[in-house]
Amino acid sequence: xxxxxxxxxxxxxxxxxxxxxxxxxxxxxxxxxxxxxxxxxxxxxxxxxxxxxxxxxxxxxxxxxxxxxxxxxxxxxxxxxxxxxxxxxxxxxxxxxxxxxxxxxxxxxxxxxxxxxxxxxxxxxxxxxxxxxxxxxxxxxxxxxxxxxxxxxxxxxxxxxxxxxxxxxxxxxxxxxxxxxxxxxxxxxxxxxxxxxxxxxxxxxxxxxxxxxxxxxxxxxxxxxxxxxxxxxxxxxxxxxxxxxxxxxxxxxxxxxxxxxxxxxxxxxxxxxxxxxxxxxxxxxxxxxxxxxxxxxxxx
Length: 300
Prior knowledge:
alpha/beta; 18% strand
């Protein structure tokens, strides 16, 4: 049965693993067919050294190539702006959608209008609880993670209210996304979904996860080849998030904790030299921010 609501799927690529990207787009095409949903896959190529259409067969997709790496959030915004569908699903290039995934997202959105709906992200059968959790400090994240994951694992409801929706698998009405931004382009990589979630929640927009919209996610695949860039962007995003949404004192304490945790990890060892260099790169962002309330957007 064909559904009248159309859905475009926005996938941002940057030096993406061709096998993972192919698995991602194949899963979306399969879900379009299984669910009777019309729409297009929009591949936003964030200036990869090899154009994405030279790595996979993108002949049935729309490819939007950026002239430079503008970051995840801005690339997603470009894809959403180019969409003409009723709804949009943002999907990471290392994520695979279940055959009934689009139908599950649409069902959740039908029953919960004016909401942001996340997919059920898991790897090897374990839910990725960080995708739905808000935190300001590394220590509070560590203490909260296991308890939060255990609570999520016990949930059997079709739709679950969460603290945060993840940009790696996020479904919403296109007009609502455009109303929200959707992402603040000052976030280069990481943190943009946590910021969106806080802004949306403050406006009374529900943050939900469609428990049956299962997403197989190979998390942190970019960490393997772009570790230093990822850690620098992650640190900037963490500081930016608390600076925009918390008191100055909280933000300053968070910067101090970030520096101390980074130094402790480097001193403790147990990681490769490349991993240690990537961790140390966080300190440059702490120094760049200093005691400022805002800082220029991070650039690679």
